[in-house]
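Regression check, NAI case 245:
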Amino acid sequence: MGLIGKLAIVTGAGSGIGRATCRLLARDGAKVIAADRNMKSAEQTVNEIACDNVIPLKLDVSSLASVSKSVTFSIEHFMQPPSIVINSAGITRDGYLLKLTEKDYDEVYEVNLKGTFLMTQQFARAMIEHQIRNGTIINLSSIVARMNNPGQANYAATKAGVISLSEIAAKEFGKFGIRVNAILPGFINTPMVDSVPEKIKTDILQRCPMGRLGRPEEIANVIAFLASEKSSYVNGAAIPVTGGL
Ligand code: NAI
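Current build output:
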């Protein structure tokens, strides 16, 4: 119950890691805005958790207008901006470089890197304006940023960008009492991984010392730690959670 009295916003809350994170943060006592581009799936998250502390919000992280509307919503609804911001919205559009279309490059960039930038900038600004001194921003990168898998140039580049963005934000926002950290999940059993071809999945399982995919809750647990005061001196970190992959 270490998050009682805290307000959190989770993007990508309608599925996988975002949904598991909403559940854990609500269990720990936080009020949670479950934000997703897909409102139906955000509502499904809220219905599954069945706790008054969680409310759904339609949000497209790639749009400045939408992100700034969500800041206004938080302040109007809760009298303050969230002090916990989790950027879990993310997409893949895999393809080998020579075939990768401009559209697939742009879409991945817009959600994964620009979306993380807009959320980080707009919510940090609101925290500073409201004199929130113990903010924490947690960005979902990926171990792919380090492994650089062929066929994922667009995705890996954005996820490497998320690490740099988080490290720089940590340095710039430390003086305002806002910590920023990145998590690098390995292969986690969510709808995102459903699109990975079976042959690649088998190869990953063979290379993973734990011999299995991760569960969304296993990422959410690390997010809950970074959201809490237990991690009060963790700042600018990029934490792999991969089962040792
Ligand atoms: P998922 O595909 O299960 O869920 C992603 C959610 O983001 C969906 O509900 C989708 O509607 C939402 N979303 C997409 N574009 C959006 C936008 N523009 N604005 C708001 N919401 C949007 O994905 P999963 O597996 O839960 O991944 C969460 C994060 O973790 C992503 O950033 C992903 O890149 C990262 N990650 C996931 C791994 C995995 O193995 N599942 C591994 C490494 C990183």
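Comparison notes: The chain has one domain: 7-235. Strands lie at 7-11, 31-36, 54-58, 84-87, 135-140, 178-185, 238-241. No diff flagged against the previous build.
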